[in-house]
Design brief:
The chain is built from one helix and eleven strands. The chain is mostly beta strands and 116 residues long. It has a five-stranded antiparallel beta sheet with strand order 1-11-10-6-7. It has a three-stranded antiparallel beta sheet with strand order 2-5-8, with no helix packed on it. The protein is elongated. The protein starts with a helix and ends with a strand. The relative contact order is 0.31.
Length: 116
């Protein structure tokens, strides 16, 4: 099943509290029967941040959640790749992907998308 990420992605606005100095890209796409999420972030060089990633799947038989968290340090150019996640895509499944970046306890960026 081939689904264009542009055709199925409906982005939700970032939180009003997000810090304008950070840019977060979910890097989400559907390919080869899987929804792949490979987030990237840009911001101040050498900055260490925490992140939280959640993928919620709703299918006819119920729902499931997959979550992970960790830390990331932006390189000298202010860029970093977070851990990736992949889930299989069923024809009637719906997904919500959310990635949140935190500086201490303060949310500096958050991005969400729904598929389809």
């Amino acid at each position: 099943m081939r689904i264009s990420a542009l055709a199925v992605m409906a982005l939700l606005p970032a939180l009003a509290l997000a810090d304008a100095g950070y840019q977060l890209d979910l890097g989400a796409r559907v390919e080869g029967g899987s929804l792949r999420v490979e987030p990237t972030v840009s911001g101040p060089p050498d900055k260490a941040l925490r992140y939280e990633m959640r993928v919620r799947r709703e299918a006819g038989a119920g729902s499931s959640n997959s979550s992970q968290s960790g830390t990331v340090r932006l390189d000298d150019g202010g860029h970093a790749q977070l851990a990736s996640n992949a889930v299989s895509v069923g024809p009637n499944d719906r997904y919500e992907v959310t990635v949140r970046l935190l500086d201490g306890n303060r949310v500096v960026a958050e991005q969400s998308a729904r598929y389809p």
